[in-house]
């Protein structure tokens, strides 16, 4: 590791990983203090709703109102989508066709497959992006969420949960209605509309940005509440899915970018950061909603988050983000 990389890593640990770690630890301590049960679950659900209905829509509106859509920007959801689909295909082979998944119920396999595909690209990815690429780099995480994560989760992700996992052949979730009822979708659309009609009022955009700044600290606190600390025992299939999530997609996309362009652009390097993030928390919500293995999903969230503190420096040392 070069001196520059070591200095950058030290800055990342202090500026990004330290506050994220403290928030995760605070959430874990708070959940332990409340004890397992209805009170902790209720608080977690209420904080999730607060983020979904207030904080996240506010930051989406603020960013969409000032960020023109460009082909360069859209390479982020494209490349992250390629990594996501590759991870899904690899995990399907590992969990359904090899000894790794032998003896596992389909509900567990589906939960691990979902968790190994989709990353925490906004709540963890955005602070890392802003460290590497400066103010405004959050746009990469937001456009990835809107153009890749959300549509793929609510189509392919739901199919994995209901067809490969719970085998709920009679259940036909109204995916379109669910997506259209999500406040983040409307906030993002309003932001783009304000930008392209020339109606984006700068003080309003800044007010929305101010409100939206609470999204990441609150949801990372909830992440600490979500990790099952007392049951965080290593399981082979969970560690394997964590390794796929944290390492396979970024290395694959890195190789693809070098093959195509040779000198990665900022957007392409941002896609590597997004691919390298740990399992997204929505995998647990999907597991609970579609009756697949929520315990395995929570374990994967926990282990991938903890191992992220090791995998990110490794990827930095390999030069992925430089």
Notes on the structure:
With 322 residues, the chain is mainly α. It has one domain (3-226, 234-317): Na+/H+ antiporter like fold, CATH 1.20.1530. It is built from 14 helices and no strands. The chain has helices at residues 3-34, 38-64, 71-97, 106-117, 125-133, 138-165, 175-180, 183-196, 202-212, 215-226, 236-260, 266-275, 282-289, 294-317. It is globular. The mean pLDDT is 92.
Features:
single chain, about 325 residues, mainly alpha, Na+/H+ antiporter like fold
The biggest beta sheet is recorded as: none
Per DSSP E runs of 2 or more residues, the count of β-strands stands at 0
Q: Label the overall shape.
A: globular
User: How much of the residues is beta strand, in percent?
Assistant: under 5%
Determine the structural class based on helices, strands and strand pairing: mainly alpha
């Amino acid at each position: 590791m070069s001196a520059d990389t070591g200095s950058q890593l030290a800055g990342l640990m202090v500026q990004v990983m330290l506050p994220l770690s403290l928030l995760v630890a605070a959430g874990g301590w708070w959940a332990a203090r409340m004890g397992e049960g209805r009170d902790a679950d209720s608080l977690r659900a209420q904080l999730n709703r607060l983020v979904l209905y207030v904080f996240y829509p506010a930051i989406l509106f603020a960013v969409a109102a000032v960020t023109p859509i460009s082909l360069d920007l859209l390479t982020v959801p494209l490349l992250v989508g390629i990594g996501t689909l590759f991870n899904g295909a690899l995990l399907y082979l590992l969990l359904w066709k090899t000894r790794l998944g032998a003896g596992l119920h389909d509900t567990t396999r589906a939960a691990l497959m979902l968790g190994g595909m989709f990353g925490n690209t906004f709540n963890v990815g955005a602070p890392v992006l802003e460290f590497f690429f400066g103010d405004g780099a959050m746009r990469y995480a937001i456009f990835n969420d809107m153009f890749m994560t959300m549509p793929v989760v609510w189509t392919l992700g739901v199919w994995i949960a209901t067809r490969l996992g719970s085998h709920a052949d009679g259940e036909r979730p109204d995916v379109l209605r669910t997506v259209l009822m999500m406040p983040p979708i409307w906030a993002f659309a309003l932001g783009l509309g304000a930008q392209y009609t020339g109606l984006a009022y700068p003080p309003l955009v800044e007010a929305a940005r101010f409100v939206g700044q609470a999204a990441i600290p609150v949801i990372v606190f909830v992440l600490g509440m979500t990790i099952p600390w007392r049951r965080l025992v290593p399981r082979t299939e969970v560690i394997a899915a964590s390794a796929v999530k944290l390492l396979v997609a970024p290395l694959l996309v890195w190789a693809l970018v070098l093959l195509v362009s040779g000198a990665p652009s900022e957007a392409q390097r941002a896609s590597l950061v997004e691919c390298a993030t740990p399992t997204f928390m929505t995998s647990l919500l999907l597991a609970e909603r579609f009756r697949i293995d929520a315990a395995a999903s929570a374990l994967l969230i926990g282990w991938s988050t903890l191992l992220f503190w090791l995998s990110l420096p490794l990827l930095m040392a390999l030069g992925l983000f430089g």
